[in-house]
Amino acid sequence: MKKFTTLKSRMVPLPVDNIDTDQIIPARFLKTISKDGLGAQLFHDWRYDASGAPRPDFVLNQHWAAQCQVLLAGDNFGCGSSREHAPWALTQYGFRAIISTSFADIFRQNSLKNSLLPVIVPPEIHKELLALVAQQPEAEVVIDLASQKLGLPDGREVEFPVDPFARQCLMEGVDELGYILIQQEDIAAYEAKNPGWINTLTP
Amino acid sequence: MSKPRTIVEKIWDAHVVRQDPGAPALLYIDVHLIHEVTSPQAFDGLRQRGLKVRRPDRTLAVADHNVPTTNRDLPIADPVSARQVEQLERNCAEFGIVCHSLSSDCQGIVHVVGPELGLTQPGITLVCGDSHTATHGAFGALAFGIGTSEVMNVLASQCLLQNKPKTYQVVVNGRLKKGVTAKDVILALIARIGTGGGTGCVFEFGGPAIRALSMDERMTVCNMSIEGGARAGLIAPDDTTFQYVHGRPYAPKGKDWDEALARWKQLPTDEGAAYDRSVTLDASSLEPMVTFGTSPGMGIPVGAPVPDPSAAKDAVERESLIKALRYMDLRPGKPLLGHPVQVVFVGSCTNGRMQDLRDAASILKGRKVHPGIRMLVVPGSQAVKRQAEAEGLDRIFREAGAEWRESGCSMCLAMNGDQLQPGEYSVSTSNRNFEGRQGPGGRTFLASPLTAAATAVNGVLSDVRTLL
After folding, report:
1. Spatial distance between the Cα atoms of A59 and A68, rounded to a whole number of angstroms
2. B266-283 pLDDT, tens per residue?
């Protein structure tokens, strides 16, 4: 996993509540057996019309959007399906962080495992940020994971919550499996104590 | 005396392998279900790290999302879908996992197959790389959807790192009126608390109206927990649960059954246990529900007018509503009843079981599908299909003019070619009305199998109570 420490970037505003993972990456692109090539399909049906031409009014089709590593989205971002293809597509496009007032549980977990940082801010800060990008599209925010602070252009800092374990993994660029596998003895002991009766190999 | 606990806490406590300070709990997973869409990259991860599947005997695979629902004796026509299903078969063969692919008698939607095989049991932890895994909570299991990285973690270790969820009590009092179903209960709940209302929580559904539901109906309620933001939803097991599980292929037998039953009876939440949140619904005041927008929380009683965005609480919510109504091409204040519909879909892990097909057939019996409607009936599994055929339901559907299909996810997410054309409206018994979910440009009204069947008969969105 890619390390995440600090990030300074402009923001792409997408002020829609409940953006679901079907919008982030439609189901028909999930037939792939690899993780690659999904960035081009990110927000496919909002980004392109039925003929495949870019929709000129969609924010990701603005020439400056490609330079932005932060998405500023509406409440409950990433709801719906558990597809990890959603954070894969977002990171392959170039996003490293998403700012919202809340995130759907599975999406948030999936993002943290792909070095895509969900940044939760209070509604009034979210409103301010939306107003800010509307007036000053070039405004940049600074995200510092170690201090869990979002730096606004006027110098104010807003704290955001991150699970301490996930933060450690992100800062070191390691995934969870290594930590889990260290505990194999505990797992074996649990299994010995709880043999259970389910065996999928023999009904 | 020990502190009273909820069922969620009891299952959680029994599955914590280890809890280090400052880290999430290492939670043991009893059953891991996998399917073709979210597993290939997880198996690749195992191969890259030289790892084996720790417990193939606790893992079961089913092909469901990509499978065609017609011409099952032919190869899958879409080469990309075919490759994904073949990859599942190859991965399962390589790692020693039982796989119910296209030709299996046990094939079906993973969340229909698990329960009908008796794999889904009270008190277990069960995960699957699919957000509708909450379905299995109907048995008093802690069941939730996971991403592909987590699928890899469970394959490798049979464990997951998890933070303890909050508990959200949902009490449904009273009795459902005629024509109002489990689907309407869950749609009404989501309309009330919003699609993010249960974020960070596990729902525990209870109360007399929930106790009165069959297992098929309970699965419908738990299935859509994720549409209310909760990763899991469950119902404490009772005699209805035990009767359903008893005698199924993977259910405990003989002495094991007696022991299991004694343990399962200890699962219900203790008197006086505290929940983090709570909500109460009155079943007798519920109406058949239908969604008007592009989020499952945008639901209204079938006779109500389309809501007005100008009544929204803030600018982003207003914009979201305007965007939804524009996509759906609906006007605020107008009734949904009588709205033209082109496609009716009965199926999915939400409403693709026997009770759902019986409900739909009860309306279609002796009636015809309106000439302007294409109706697909897709059983949730091959076992459901066989049972429906044994009861003659397939004949009722066919004689009415509906298409009787093979089992799979089908038009719920339109990965297999069963899909809406741009601009078409469907009444669908599935779980999501997101933009393009049932095909690019398609528009979805979510509803119960009864409402779907009534709409199929009338050719326009209908209140089933006029046909009862």
Report:
1. 11
2. 999 999 999 999 999 999
